[in-house]
Structure formats: C-alpha cells, structure tokens
C-alpha cells in the first residue's frame, strides 16, 4: 500500500500514519521528522532548513526531494509507505510523480484530512505547551495555515482530478479517525 497523507498542520497526519504503519506493516515517511532529525544532527541540510521551519515556511523543493529520494531507497519501503507531509505544493506533486514513475511504485491513494482551523490551533497550542516545538507557537501556526491554504490545498485538486483522492473527517477520537481512513482506502 503506497499512500500520501495530505492535511493542514496539526490535522493528525503523523498520529494516524503511526497507526497505519503498524496496521499495514509499511514505512512511515514524514518529511517534517526527517528535517527535524537533520536540524538536531546539525547537518548542512538541517542548518539550512531550521530558520525556514521556525518561520512556518516551506523548505526548498530541491532539498526535500533529495532527502525523500534517499529515504524511499531504504528496504523498509518494500511493502509500501505513507508519505506524511509530502507533496506540499504542485511542483512537489509533479516531482513525486516523476520519482515514483522511475522506481515503478505508483500511489494507491491520497488521503486528505479535514479539520477546522480553530481545532488545529487548539491542538498545536496543547502540543506547544507540552513539547515546545517552535513552529507550534500560535502566531507560527497561523502562518503555517496560510502556507497550507496557498500552496498545499491545490495539491488535493491535483489528485482529485486523477480519482485517487479520499477525503476523511479528521475530527474525533483518534481510533475513530483511524477507522474512517481504513474504510476510505481501496481494498487490497
Ligand atoms: P511537518 O512536521 O510535516 O508539520 P505539519 O504538516 O505542519 O504537521 P504536524 O506535525 O504539525 O501535524 P500533523 O498533521 O502530523 O498532526 P499530528 O498527528 O502531529 O512539517 C514541519 C515543517 O517542516 C513545515 O512547516 C516545513 O517548514 C517543513 N517541511 C516538512 N515537509 C516539507 C515539504 N514536503 N516541503 C517543504 N517543507 C517541508 O497531530 C498534531 C497534534 O494533535 C498532536 O499533539 C496530536 O497528539 C494531536 N492530535 C492528533 N489527532 C488528534 C485527534 N483526533 N484528536 C485530538 N488531538 C489529536
């Protein structure tokens, strides 16, 4: 099963990807987690990415694609993968098409999480208080929501036009949202 999770910051992509990874024994690839690991390790990529991430903006397409290509080459993707946080704009969606075409691994579905902005701001506020993630500060969350509306929301139309988009209500208990996702996926 090869999936993309699309959704605004805080819509639950990472939470649900962790559950789905167990359910289907597939890899969970979060470009945000890969970038945060690069920042923590102080790699050249991490040093370039940090200020951009803290400002709630998108890291350059080229950097993220290189990182993703490297990650997809690992053996744990053999049974499939969930891309959590990629693609985030139309250029990335086209780049992903090219990359998956080259490695012969087309997507099975794209799941879009629908969660109202006020719920998202509340969730990120709770996480900010608990974990102190810099981009969860309410001002930065509002910027991230703006970037999502401008650059990432059109990606849903890109996949809708191909008939691979499943839209899921992301509000409610985590296990209920999970059941909705499983029900929305194509049967294997
Ligand atoms: P990234 O880490 O991808 O952040 P995001 O998409 O903004 O995702 P979040 O982790 O905030 O939210 P999520 O949807 O995964 O929700 P989660 O499950 O964590 O990206 C960070 C930054 O990296 C970007 O801003 C950008 O700078 C850069 N970046 C990443 N990918 C990039 C790319 N492709 N191109 C360029 N730049 C890129 O849940 C959020 C919170 O809500 C948690 O505390 C969780 O416990 C809680 N929660 C989850 N589900 C529920 C529920 N059902 N009910 C109540 N609470 C819930």
Q: What ligand species are in this complex?
A: BIS(adenosine)-5'-pentaphosphate
Portion of residues within helices? 55-70%
Main beta-sheet strand count, sense and barrel state: 5 strands, parallel
Gyration radius from CA atoms, angstroms: 16 Å
Give the second-level CATH assignment, the architecture. Answer: 3-Layer(aba) Sandwich
Task: Indicate how many domains the architecture comprises.
Answer: 1
Q: What do you see in this structure?
A:
With 188 residues, this protein is an alpha/beta fold. The chain has a single domain (2-184), classed as Rossmann fold (3-Layer(aba) Sandwich). It has eight helices and five strands, in the order βαβαααβαβααβα. A five-stranded parallel sheet has the order 2-3-1-4-5, sandwiched between helices. α1 (13-24) packs across α8, α2 (31-41) crosses α3 and α6 (117-131) crosses α7 (138-160). The radius of gyration is 16 Å and the shape is globular. The N and C termini lie close together (8 Å). The mean pLDDT is 96. The structure holds BIS(adenosine)-5'-pentaphosphate. BIS(adenosine)-5'-pentaphosphate (AP5) is lined by residues 7, 9-15, 30-32, 35, 52-53, 56-59, 64, 85-86, 88, 92, 123, 127, 135, 144, 172, 174, 177.
Map the helices and strands.
Elements: E1 2-6, H1 13-24, E2 27-30, H2 31-41, H3 44-54, H4 61-72, E3 81-84, H5 90-103, E4 109-114, H6 117-131, H7 138-160, E5 165-169, H8 174-184
Parallel strand pairs: 1-3, 1-4, 2-3, 4-5
Helix pairs in contact: 1-8, 2-3, 6-7
The chain binds BIS(adenosine)-5'-pentaphosphate (AP5).
The site of BIS(adenosine)-5'-pentaphosphate has 30 residues, from helix 1, helix 2, helix 3, helix 6 and helix 8.
């Amino acid at each position: 099963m090869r999936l993309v999770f699309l959704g605004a910051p805080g819509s639950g992509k990472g939470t649900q990807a962790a559950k789905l990874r167990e359910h289907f024994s597939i890899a969970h690839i979060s470009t945000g987690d890969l970038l945060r690991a690069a920042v923590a390790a102080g790699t050249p990529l991490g040093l370039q990415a940090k200020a951009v991430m803290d400002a709630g903006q998108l890291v350059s397409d080229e950097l993220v694609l290189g990182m993703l290509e490297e990650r997809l080459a690992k053996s744990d993707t053999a049974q499939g993968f969930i891309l959590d946080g990629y693609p985030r704009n139309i250029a990335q969606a086209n780049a992903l098409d090219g990359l998956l075409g080259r490695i012969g691994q087309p997507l099975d579905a794209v799941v879009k999480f629908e969660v109202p902005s006020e719920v998202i701001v509340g969730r990120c506020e709770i996480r900010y208080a608990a974990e102190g993630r810099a981009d969860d500060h309410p001002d930065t969350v509002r910027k991230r929501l703006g970037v999502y509306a401008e650059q990432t929301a059109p990606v849903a139309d890109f996949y809708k036009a191909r008939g691979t988009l499943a839209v899921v209500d992301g509000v409610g208990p985590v296990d209920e949202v999970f059941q909705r996702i499983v029900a929305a996926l194509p049967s294997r």
